[in-house]
Structures are given as C-alpha cells and as structure tokens.
C-alpha cells in the first residue's frame, strides 16, 4: 500500500469551504426552494439547535475531507477536481437518489441536496490537491 501524506491545513480549509458553499447554496440560490420542498418555515429554522447542527456538520464534513484526501494522494489539481466531482456525483448524489426515491422526496429536493455535495466535493478535490 502506498503511503499518503495529508496536508491537514488543506483538510480544514476544504471542510470550511463546504460551509461557504452551503451558505450560498442554501441561502440565495436554493434557500426558498429547499425550505418549500422540506415543508419548513422561517420559524422552524429559528427554533433549530444550530450549534448542534453546525457542529455535527463540521465533524461529518471533516471526515469527508480526510477521506477524500487519502483517496487523492499525489493527484494533480485537475485530477483532484475530476475525482472530487466523481465522488460527489457518482457516489454521493446517486446514493442520495436511491434514498430519496424510497422516501418519496421530490426530484427538486434531490437535486438541491445532492448537487450541493457535487459542488462541495469538486472544490474539496481542488483544495486538497492544490496544497501539497
């Protein structure tokens, strides 16, 4: 097995990039549609435990970034973007699609949620391979 060196600063930056993407994705781009598809109101969002949600999301996305970093190893930036895209699209979006079919979620909600990860993993791949 090949030894892989991980740049931990890049992992943290890649993790934080998912929050930046999420703020835009679930804010001005798809925020209202996402709320409608989930049946959420502004009041529902205000009553959520945001510390728990953001804290847990950070840990989960950190694990995703670490995992991707190990897969990318010595890849170039273009390979990082490509493999990040394939991870987001081929694994995450398709797996979510299966779950959304059985839970009878809408195609629109599947698109909003899964393509957030396609964009996030693509950018994580760039960050993780740019900072070696």
Description:
The chain starts with 7 loop residues before the first helix and ends with a helix. It has six helices and no strands. About 80% of the residues lie in helices and about 0% in strands. With about 130 residues, it is mostly helical. The protein has one domain.
Topology:
Elements: H1 8-29, H2 31-38, H3 42-46, H4 50-72, H5 77-102, H6 107-130
Helix pairs in contact: 1-4, 1-6, 2-6, 4-6, 5-6
Quick take:
InterPro entries: DUF1761 (IPR013879). This protein is mainly α and 132 residues long.
Give descriptors for this structure.
single chain; 132 residues; 0% strand
Helix count?
Answer: 6
Strand content: under 5%
Portion of residues in helices? Answer: over 70%
What's the β-strand tally? Answer: 0
Gap from first CA to last CA: 20 Å
Q: How much is the average pLDDT?
A: 96
Radius of gyration: 16 Å
Q: Which geometry do the CA atoms define?
A: globular
């Amino acid at each position: 097995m090949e030894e892989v060196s991980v740049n931990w600063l890049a992992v943290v930056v890649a993790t934080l990039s998912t929050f930046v993407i999420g703020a835009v994705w679930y804010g001005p781009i798809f925020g209202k549609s996402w709320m409608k598809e989930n049946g959420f109101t502004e009041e529902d969002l205000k009553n959520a435990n945001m510390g728990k949600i953001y804290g847990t999301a950070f840990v989960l996305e950190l694990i995703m970034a670490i995992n991707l970093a190990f897969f990318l190893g010595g890849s170039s930036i273009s390979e990082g973007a490509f493999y990040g895209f394939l991870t987001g699209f081929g694994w995450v979006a398709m797996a979510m699609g299966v779950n959304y079919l059985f839970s009878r979620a809408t195609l629109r909600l599947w698109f909003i949620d899964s393509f957030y990860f396609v964009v996030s993993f693509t950018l994580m791949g760039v960050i993780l391979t740019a900072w070696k």
